[in-house]
Amino acid sequence: MPFRDAIQGIIKKADKAWEEFSHPTSQPPGPSNNGPPPPPIPAATRPPAYQEPGLQPQIYWQPNLHSQAPVSANFYHEQGQHGWGNQESQNYVDHPQNSFHSPQGDALIVRALINHGHPDHAQKFTSARLSSHQTLGRPRGCLSARITAPVARGIWPAFWLLPKDPFKWPEDGEVDIMEAWNGDAVNHTCLHWGHFNGEDWDKHRVLETPIPNINSPQGVRYDFIWDEDESTGRGRLAWLIDGRPIMRAEKPPGTRKMSDFRILINIAVGGNVCQGVMPSDGCYETVVRELAMWDAPPWGWTQFESIWNDCKDGNTM
């Protein structure tokens, strides 16, 4: 089959999937975990009663996700097919079929298109890796987004943070907010700032949270809160999912200041975490809505201690 016909077929299937996604007639499939998981977050959760009267958090950055706005207005396309340090198979490109704003509403779509039969190796597994022009920009605040993530074998979607260029990985730090892989509806909340051996054995914090509705049309709300004293480099970090405190961590000494960190949104294909499994031909989408940076957590800074106390310490790896 000529490539033009093949890719048009994939895009038609993707558009049909988008229609079904926008007007679902059935519930998405449940998780397919490879072992006994910790207790899941309920599909319908209510934020705790932390409301701070009279002091509502304010948005200080929110990208324009209107269908007529170019993705490049908010994000830079990081491109390449060199494995990205994890033996990944995708080719990150800036093609409009791999990243665009939905014509059906304010949403950012990142697509991985899989075509094993394509004669050009660079076109077999295309995807997008977006890096925000905007950094967190402040010593404390809250980054939030509502995300529908694909759940499929060999697929690895992520919503995460790295310091702005130039930076040194992993010493400068990495923050993972939404990360799921290989068909499991499990979120991996992570903080990395060292290698995985020798004296760096404990320089990671990770917590796994099953989210049965991770690929639901309404999406899942993710919040990352940071509070840093830039004069000392000390600070505290907290992660929430659908309003529920999940993980906390002290900001590691020597890592870059939080105001330097930028947003990354991508879908990887294969790679170490997928254990050599590759996805079937088709289209896999991450849908990002309500992306914003706030000057305070959802219930204000006076309630941060309550949020902190309700979080768990991340596990070492």
Description:
With 317 residues, this protein is mainly beta. The chain has one domain (3-24, 57-313): Jelly Rolls. It contains two helices and 18 strands. Strands 1, 3, 4, 5, 6, 8, 13, 14, 15, 17 and 18 form an eleven-stranded mixed β-sheet that branches. Strand 4 and strand 5 form a beta hairpin. It starts with a helix and ends with a strand. Mean pLDDT is 88; it is low at 21-35 and 43-49.
The termini sit apart by 46 Å
Mean pLDDT: 88
Q: H/E series, N to C?
A: HEEEEEEEEEEEEEEEEEHE
Alpha plus pi helix count: 2
Structural class: mainly beta
Any idea what the shape is? globular
What distinguishing features does this structure have?
36% strand; mainly beta; 317 residues; Jelly Rolls; 7-stranded antiparallel beta sheet
SSE layout:
Elements: H1 3-22, E1 59-61, E2 75-77, E3 91-92, E4 99-101, E5 108-114, E6 125-127, E7 129-135, E8 140-148, E9 155-163, E10 174-179, E11 186-192, E12 204-210, E13 220-229, E14 234-241, E15 244-250, E16 261-269, E17 282-294, H2 304-310, E18 312-313
Parallel strand pairs: 3-6, 15-18
Antiparallel strand pairs: 1-17, 2-7, 4-5, 5-6, 5-17, 7-16, 8-13, 8-17, 9-10, 9-16, 10-11, 11-12, 13-14, 14-15
